[in-house]
Design a protein that fits this description.
With 628 residues, the protein is an alpha+beta fold. Helices cover 24% and strands 20% of the residues. A hairpin with a 2-residue loop joins strand 8 and strand 9.
Amino acid sequence: MKMLRRLNRSVAVTVLAMPLLVLAGSMGHATASAPQHAISMYGDVKYLADFTHFDYVNPDAPKGGTLALSGSGTFDSLNPFILRGTPAAGLTLGFDTLMAPSLDEPFTYYGLVAESVETPEDRSWVKFTLNPEARWHDGQPITAEDVIFSYETLTTKGHPQYRSYYANVVKAEKTGEREVTFTFDGAVNRELPLIMGQLPILPKHYYQDRDFERTSLDPPIGSGPYEIKTFEPGRSIVYERVPDYWAKDLPVNRGRYNYDEIRYEYYRDRDVAFEAFKAGEFDLWSENSSKRWATGYEGNAFRNGVIVQEKLAIRPVARMQGYVFNLRDERFKDPRVREALGYAFDFEWTNKNLLYDAYERIESYFHGEPDLASSGLPSDAELALLEPYRDQLPAAVFTEAFLPPRTDGSGNNRDNLRQALRLLGEAGWVVENGRLVNQETGEPMTFEILLSDPSGERIASPWVNNLKRLGVDARIRIVDTAQYQNRMDSFDFEVTSEIWGQSDSPGNEQRDYWGSAAADVPGSRNTPGIKDPVVDALIDKVITAGSRAELETAVRALDRVLLWGQYVVPHFVDDGYRVAYRNKFSRPEILPEEGPDFMAWWVDPAKVAALRSRQPSNATGAQAQPTD
């Protein structure tokens, strides 16, 4: 689960939201309060206290070479932790967190800046003991004061997401020379100790005399494996590996961060970026277009093995993705209107004619996690959560399994359009002179579909054409990434395309996704502006679940309510991870389930030599955007 930032925008910091925290002792079993090397969701951990590296890395991977990637749009800030500005890609490579996740087990974190963690049975507080070797890039030690400063700064001056995410913390205090204790508000929220382990640590001595809330192009001091080497605002940024990085030999880092340099070259258009990739301007391309995947990988570079095209057998990230209605707009407040407009989206025709039959329709806000996605009718356990709100919910929540509208793929979706007109009529909209108008005000139904990626236009256009058959004047507008981010942060849109990634143990982040308190907070992930007390109550059930079974039940109940709220016209997903890369990399044999760890790959000197013999290359790379 990515923390509170849109997947198709610059990511401030990546965290995993995971409830049901249990401490893991050196023998891998749950214990009472005592300092431990790891914290886990379920009690057992894969790696014992004396582990030396994760299984999905090569601990002897050679260091060297360059990983060249692409950035999208532009950047004007080197501070990734605030709402203002557009931060450069890769900035979090310079900042360590208290603990680090493993990617091949359910929700477990191991020591990084904190060498140990301690929490009592009731999870009312968590104590971190800092590694005495932890250092900033300028050589100063990372202190308890830095940790407290980080928490206080992020929650008072950082992106509004931090205030929501750490809302249950009531006190942060130094309780020993290298100890920091966070005390919680008493609400049952078993993931809180793990959430605090995800805290990015900021240097107090660097930021205390600077205005943290302003955008800045001053390279910050960090403590992570890389630091900024050079940059051109809006065009490129280069990171170099810190040779004396304090944590390079910790078990969580061995075999990772193998490149001497990581470079991002910025492109405003993905089609231009792909041509640059084929020409050797960067190294790595994560594909989000089925058309390009099926038809665009041609030429000598592919025939000669200079570029490798591969679909990695990795479980897709659970998600909801689709066209989102802005409920802050009066026209979209009625769920019948939203449902009707969704009937005009013909997925079956789109998949057959535009997507090479490569996708399946999303049918859940947790699509891809079968234990969490609702299906069929509510179970008895789900009904126990839903019944108190029966009068506030659509009857269909209790009587029907949610499925998006379907067609035969022929393009003749008259039945769905008739159903749409029926719903629109019930909501007070009628067709007059070929235009859909509000029966009371005479206002025509017109809206703009805001996109940042031109490739999204070919998917939206058939929907627009079907909407015209309903008398709706819908228009597509494509803006650059900086304008798109600014408009999304201020909710200045009518309809847009959005993605919410999910972990397989949802928690606090659901408040920022769907909670009423986040609906009007600039930059929140509650893009549609949902304000529903039932949704709020079910989010609380998710967060306070006392067992995995309770969590799954609460998530499925929440899923049903969100689906029948008709907030999103669901899109589609692939069944793997599509990637292309210059044939200069080697990687570990084991791929972690949570996704490819490109920081565990390395530049292979033998492959570099072979590549040079086929075609000279200046090597550079690309970053995925999660749309087709």
